[in-house]
Amino acid sequence: MTSRDARFDGEFFFAVVTTGIYCRPSCPAVTPKRVNVRFFPSAAAAQAAGFRACRRCRPDAVPGSAEWNVRADLVGRAMRLIGDGVVDREGVGGLARRLGYSPRQVQRQLTAELGAGPVALARARRAHTARVLLQTTALPVTELAFAAGFASIRQFNDTIREIYAGTPSELRAAAGNRGAAARHTAPAGPGTATGPESAFASRSASTGIPLRLAYRGPYAAAEIFDFLQVRAVPGVEEIRGTRGGRTYRRTLRLTHGSGIAEVDEPAGPRRRRRPPAGLVCPAARGTDGGWLECRLRLTDLRDLSTAVQRLRRLFDLDADPYAVAERLGADPLLGPLVAERPGLRSPGAADPEELAVRTVLGGPPERAAALVRTYGKPLDAPDGGLTHLFPAPGELTGAEVAEPVRTLCTALADGAITLDAGADRGAAERALAALPGVGPRTATYLRMRALGDPDVGTVAEADAERGGTVGPAAWRPWGAYALHHLWRAGLLPTGEIPGPGEVPGPGETAESGEIPGPAVIPGPVVIPGPGVIPGPGEVPGPRLIPGSGPAPGPSQTPTRAETSGPGEPSAAPEPPPYAPVARAG
């Protein structure tokens, strides 16, 4: 508190009993007397104790704690599900069912560790979302309340007054957003749709809802946009612009509808200045945090919080780069790599089930694009290169695709395998590895990206059972970041998950093909014609332009020699992570 070290923001909060407010550790206000200070493990706990958020440091606006990405216990899984909006949609009972515990046990565990139960934690999340929308958008209050996850306008008003000691209109006016509602609110006439489902019609189709996604710096934005660009599936994703000023765009399948998200690549280090209220933390000692500019267009505003959380996972915005650098920087192999690329992130997934299907399907993005054209749901209003939603697993159980893809989709659709934010990562990895055509390394890759586990690559359970580890134990719990540094530096074959003893030493480099696995793409790429979905390993022959010649059909299957391991397809589940591309937006 005295040093105002922002590295501890989100790790704990303190409240001042004489003022009735709670703050983050880096709050620039005068340090209070110790006798007047109370400490809380979460913003929700401080709110439940009757303290309101400081208007100067905005403690409720800090990026999420990286601890919840690491932890695999009940509390960690519950926090990830609460962040995904499960309590708002399904209540505490739905949260408990997903976790496999009783509501009472979930309540007891969360209260013991965080000082607040699931209802209070979800309420704090809704209140923060509401304040950001009030102070940064022109959404009418009637729409904004539903977008933040509130069930009624009355509940929304009562919560804002209690937590922020002001009315919604006062919060909006304090941020210089006076008249925003007046400019965008009109009385509903005959036949006018009302409620959250009409929100998309009332928003500008060209701009969407502008948001800023906060992160803890440093943040290697160019590298994560490189990673996403080489994987962009035409029809579902696209990258516009050139390096240093790109915009990542994609469609989203959400609970109540669909949406389109746009995220801009920061041009470079931002000049330190105080941002608009409620967006990101002000400059503080020990941080160069910032934000990604984002725009969301949703068919139903109730999906806003869920869409934001999915983008945060995709861009790994809740990571703690200081903790990662402290652990990996001490390693003689990784230390120089961490210093060269500070803030390198481990990208997650906007839709874990989509990523699983794409990974098992294998091959270049054009293969997944053919799947999308055939089975994906077309958008009512295509936007540029965005034309479809990626097909849900239930829509692919009877599709003419390779058997491993159908088997995976059946398991996902039936609930035999769960890949949501609160999934048991170990159980999911074992279930994936047991599927034909998947195998342990592909399952480990999905554990890292689809389930967002930062500890993947150092203690993969499949290797631990054989008495080995994947990489030095000193990297724990940041093995995923170690892998990305090794991939980026070319010390491991691109995209490969190493096995026991396969991590090169300092000064060593991995030769191409040294470790056979799903990263090796054999032969020239074949782009299938419309409606043809090739199976794993079907990439022989010269390059074909769609529609100009025959493409391998779905009935073909790879031979034993064409596979990279027991049950794993030889086609790459993903392209090389950071290969430069010249694809224009």
From TrEMBL:
<dbReference type="InterPro" id="IPR037046">
    <property type="entry name" value="AlkA_N_sf"/>
</dbReference>
<dbReference type="GO" id="GO:0043565">
    <property type="term" value="F:sequence-specific DNA binding"/>
</dbReference>
<feature type="domain" description="HTH araC/xylS-type">
    <location>
        <begin position="76"/>
        <end position="174"/>
    </location>
</feature>
<dbReference type="GO" id="GO:0008270">
    <property type="term" value="F:zinc ion binding"/>
</dbReference>
<dbReference type="Pfam" id="PF06029">
    <property type="entry name" value="AlkA_N"/>
</dbReference>
<dbReference type="InterPro" id="IPR010316">
    <property type="entry name" value="AlkA_N"/>
</dbReference>
<feature type="region of interest" description="Disordered">
    <location>
        <begin position="497"/>
        <end position="585"/>
    </location>
</feature>
<feature type="compositionally biased region" description="Low complexity">
    <location>
        <begin position="497"/>
        <end position="518"/>
    </location>
</feature>
<dbReference type="InterPro" id="IPR009057">
    <property type="entry name" value="Homeodomain-like_sf"/>
</dbReference>
<keyword id="KW-0238">DNA-binding</keyword>
<keyword id="KW-0227">DNA damage</keyword>
<keyword id="KW-0234">DNA repair</keyword>
<dbReference type="InterPro" id="IPR018062">
    <property type="entry name" value="HTH_AraC-typ_CS"/>
</dbReference>
<dbReference type="InterPro" id="IPR004026">
    <property type="entry name" value="Ada_DNA_repair_Zn-bd"/>
</dbReference>
<dbReference type="InterPro" id="IPR035451">
    <property type="entry name" value="Ada-like_dom_sf"/>
</dbReference>
<dbReference type="InterPro" id="IPR011257">
    <property type="entry name" value="DNA_glycosylase"/>
</dbReference>
<keyword id="KW-0010">Activator</keyword>
<dbReference type="InterPro" id="IPR050204">
    <property type="entry name" value="AraC_XylS_family_regulators"/>
</dbReference>
<dbReference type="Pfam" id="PF12833">
    <property type="entry name" value="HTH_18"/>
</dbReference>
<keyword id="KW-0489">Methyltransferase</keyword>
<feature type="region of interest" description="Disordered">
    <location>
        <begin position="175"/>
        <end position="201"/>
    </location>
</feature>
<keyword id="KW-0479">Metal-binding</keyword>
<feature type="compositionally biased region" description="Pro residues">
    <location>
        <begin position="519"/>
        <end position="539"/>
    </location>
</feature>
<dbReference type="InterPro" id="IPR018060">
    <property type="entry name" value="HTH_AraC"/>
</dbReference>
<protein>
    <submittedName>
        <fullName>Putative DNA glycosylase</fullName>
    </submittedName>
</protein>
<dbReference type="GO" id="GO:0008168">
    <property type="term" value="F:methyltransferase activity"/>
</dbReference>
<keyword id="KW-0808">Transferase</keyword>
<dbReference type="Pfam" id="PF02805">
    <property type="entry name" value="Ada_Zn_binding"/>
</dbReference>
<keyword id="KW-0862">Zinc</keyword>
<keyword id="KW-0805">Transcription regulation</keyword>
<dbReference type="GO" id="GO:0003700">
    <property type="term" value="F:DNA-binding transcription factor activity"/>
</dbReference>
<dbReference type="GO" id="GO:0032259">
    <property type="term" value="P:methylation"/>
</dbReference>
<dbReference type="GO" id="GO:0006307">
    <property type="term" value="P:DNA alkylation repair"/>
</dbReference>
<feature type="compositionally biased region" description="Low complexity">
    <location>
        <begin position="175"/>
        <end position="196"/>
    </location>
</feature>
<keyword id="KW-0804">Transcription</keyword>
